[in-house]
Amino acid sequence: MGFDLPQYSITGPAPDYSFEPACGERTLQQTPSRIRPTTEATFIRKSGKITVVLHNQEDNARVPSYGRAALIVGSLLFDSSDSICEVVLEA
Asked: Cα(79)–Cα(48) distance, rounded to whole angstroms?
């Protein structure tokens, strides 16, 4: 027994998206966001002559972790900066 799928047609582009409802709109249902607890620990790792220090981490974290759209706060420490002409960070 076969089933025919309904026919669909594109009627136009998708509407613009906004996080907050526009005038005359309302939110019907919303899942509460998980609020990330404030953390005070510091993540420190040394590799060769470079030390990475990242703040606002979980106590005893094995890898650094930040929430979505979080600000990354920390420092790069170099044993010697005499030969450094550029530092590039990638996500």
From this structure: 9
CA triplet 51, 54, 65: central angle to 5 degrees?
Answer: 125
Model pLDDT for residues 9-37, shown as the tens digit of each residue = 777 787 777 777 888 888 777 666 666 66
Distance CA 80, CA 37 (A): 36
Which residues are CB-contacts of 64 (< 8 A; sequence separation ≥ 6)?
A: 43, 54, 57
Q: Report the C-alpha gap between 51 and 79 in whole angstroms.
A: 8
pTM, two decimals, is 0.54
Find the DSSP H helices in the chain: none
